[in-house]
Amino acid sequence: MKSFARFALFLIAASIAAHCQSADATCKLIVHMTGFRNDKGDAGVTLFKDTNGWPEDNDKALHHEGFPIDAATKTSTATFDKLVPGTYAVAMIHDENLNHKMDYNMFHYPKEGFGFANNPHVLLTSPSFQTASFNVACPVTEININVQYK
Asked: The domain at 25-146 falls in which architecture?
């Protein structure tokens, strides 16, 4: 009887934990992007929860989505809902030709604008996940990214 009672308590605790995890997924992330050189294409924003695929593998990202660029202000805003609190990183590109990837010239310099959370200075390589990471807290976390062009 004791083992059955322990098993029942385990099931109840597991059910409560699962409910709490889904209930915790109520955080919102708002990414403000400024400095677009034009309003062609969109702002391709990729949200990562860990280093897997960072920063260019959209298939391994938690979210990847295009957001419109305001013609008058050359800004864009991305919103991600129902996030669990924790550490995330954001990479974005000014996807002028809407091909959902960064385009490079023959010297492997980016032909399109790009940016990362925390606005690190980028020379020849992308910043690490840790450099572009930040904490999402509930109810809302807002970050700013300045688009860079090489």
From this structure: Sandwich (2.60)
Q: What is the 3-state secondary structure (H, E, C) of 4-61?
A: HHHHHHHHHHHHHHHHHHHHHCCEEEEEEEECCCCCCCEEEEEEECCCCCCCCCHHHC
- Break the chain into its structural domains and give their ranges: 25-146
* Cis peptide bond N-terminal to 55, omega within 30: yes
List b or e across 32-71, with b for residues whose CB sees 16 or more CB atoms inside 10 angstroms: ebeebeebebbbbbbbbbeeebbbeeeeebebbebbebee
Q: Which tokens go with 125?
A: 């390589």
Q: What is the pLDDT of residues 75-129, one digit of tens each?
A: 999 999 999 999 999 999 999 999 999 999 999 999 999 999 999 999 889 999 9
Report the percent of the chain where pLDDT is more than 90. 80
Per-residue H/E/C for 102-117: CCECCCCCECCCEEEC
Per-residue pLDDT reduced to its tens digit, 133-143: 999 999 999 99
